Amino acid sequence: MTAVIGILMPGDMGHGVGTVLAQAGHRVVTCLAGRSEHSRSLATRAGMEDAGSLAALVGEADLILSILPPTAAISLAKDVAAAMVETGKPVTYADCNAVSPATVRQVGDLIVAAGAPFIDAGIVGAAPNRNSGTRFFVSGPDTSAMEALDSEAIKVVPLGPEIGRASAMKMVYAALTKGTWTLQTAVLMAAERLGLTADLIGEFEFSQKPALAVMRQRVPHMPADAARWIGEMEEIAATFADAGVTPEFHKGAADIFRILAKTPFAQETRETLDPNRTLEEALRVYAAVKPDAGD
Description:
Structural class: alpha/beta
Oligomer: single chain
Number of helices: 12
Distance between the termini: 49 Å
Largest sheet: 8 strands, mixed
CATH architecture of the largest domain: 3-Layer(aba) Sandwich
């Protein structure tokens, strides 16, 4: 069934999701008020329409997907809930952000208080316009609106009726992937500051070839996403603490992303980053950053 789907906001993941939903025949709307020219360009390329305001988007949409940095999840939910009350139209709202179960329950309470159905969702994988089979884990009393989007490009995986399960799945998954990348970056930065980069990489060539291949692929390009991944690491740390597991690993991961966000490379986007930058070149820049007292 063709649906009108609101996506907030058209960043890297949001415009990727919008692209494949528009290609599937859905009408995809967003709100570009106050957004950058980069976001406007992404929305246009994805075939997303600008509703002009949150109230207008709520008035048109059958389903709203919140896809933005985790630090903005609660504030956006407040604004959308207010728009639902203003328009008198409760719309199914899926929080697809990298947030802890505790945070997503706060978001859900705001939406349900506005009279709307709420779905907890966690995205695993790259944006679906660049990746086949991006997974949307979903949980909540009624996840049918999200399950209807299941396709070759977006695989929707139900995890039961409990709000928080889908977000928890995202948290533990990203704890491994991004947590590993930040550990690798920390190791390499320490080696660079100790004058051991060439020697360590030489040993990795001998005994850690698969891991080194990942480092060469990932570590030079992480600054472009570092600023928005700080909040994700903090949400993971909170999730671990609530589960009775040390949060310190991912507090440290947040600190690494804070350092990367201070480099000149942090001004890049996924479209403008230098694909030829080497691991060694990146490390020289990373190691030169003076961390703040809390980093």
